Amino acid sequence: MNFHILTLFPEMIMQGIGTSITGRAIEAGHISVEAVNIRDYSDNKHCKVDDYPYGGGAGMVMYAEPVFRAYEAVREKIGKTPRVLYMTPQGRVFRQEMAEELSKEEDLIFLCGHYEGIDERVLEEIVTDHVSIGDYVLTGGELPAMVMIDAISRLVPGVLNNDASAEIESFHDNLLEYPQYSRPEEWRGKKVPEVLMSGHHANIEKWRREQSLIRTMLRRPDLLENANLTKQERVLVDK
Ligand code: SAM
After folding, report:
1. What is the Cα–Cα distance from 111 to 141, expressed in whole angstroms?
2. Cα separation, 220 vs 222, whole angstroms
3. What is the CATH architecture assignment of 2-153?
4. How far is residue 192's CA from residue 181's CA, in Å, rounded to a whole number?
5. ipTM > 0.90, yes or no
6. CATH class of segment(s) 168-238
7. Which of 62, 88, 93 to mutate to test the pocket of ligand 1 (most atoms within 8 A of CB)?
8. Domain named tRNA methyltransferase TRMD/TRM10-type: which ranges (predicted)?
9. Each residue of 159-215: pLDDT tens digit?
10. What are the boundaries of each domain within the chain?
């Protein structure tokens, strides 16, 4: 899976994604991350990439042309036209289902805005998806792109040591994950639930499923409507 990020701050992307699990995934060749500096595609002798908005108002707006050229350079290099995800607080909110859907693509282009955003004309021309990471406004699209790349990468086969671990995590099937424990068996007077020490796999599974349901009911009841529940579980949560 290949991520191409159009940005004014490529170093931010490479520092963020080049470490830990995603860093190892790059080294192992499971994913590739290319940060393309939009400024390199400016035709202005001072490499200027933004200007005041027509109609007045605060802030600066990024020019259309350097963004378009950076996009064309990626397209030419890879010889195809992938989806272009514009990071914007005005987009569809990113969720695990979207991460699962996007993890099936071979190439993705992320477009990061800055300042007041990007000239609308180039967005109309190249963007296929407007995506937000939540209802708040950040200074730039780099953190949203990194959030998405991290979430998508861990669904790419080989990136996690154990591929099954992505399948039983929070939001898969619209349930939150059960609580997790590790050594020691007792920590400051708190014991690990006995069932987890029993070695009885069926009972462990049952306990984990119950905990998932309880946790989702308490913390994120909004998810339950679309959760994949048995008839019995549905009756229980609808009470
Ligand atoms: N003027 C824009 C508006 O009101 O919709 C906000 C611009 S914001 C200050 C600058 C850039 O940060 C945006 O172009 C976008 O790329 C990114 N950004 C800010 N908040 C975001 C969010 N919640 N999700 C995704 N991208 C975001």
Report:
1. 7
2. 5
3. 3-Layer(aba) Sandwich (3.40)
4. 7
5. yes
6. mainly alpha
7. 88
8. 1-225
9. 998 766 667 788 888 999 999 999 999 999 999 999 999 999 999 999 999 999 999
10. 2-153, 168-238
Residue pointed to by tokens 């898969």: 172
Q: Which two tokens stand for residue 43?
A: 């035709």
Task: Give the per-residue SS3 of the chain.
Answer: CEEEEEECCHHHHHHHHCCHHHHHHHHCCCCEEEEEEHHHHCCCCCCCCEECCCCCCCCCEECHHHHHHHHHHHHHHHCCCCEEEEEEEEEEECCHHHHHHHCCCCEEEEEECECCCECHHHHHHHCCEEEECCCCCCCECHHHHHHHHHHHHCCCCCCCCCCHHHHCCCCHHHCCCCCCCCCCCEECCEECCHHHHCCCHHHHHHHHHHHHHHHHHHHCHHHHHHCCCCHHHHHHHHC
Cα four-point dihedral sign 118, 124, 125, 130: positive
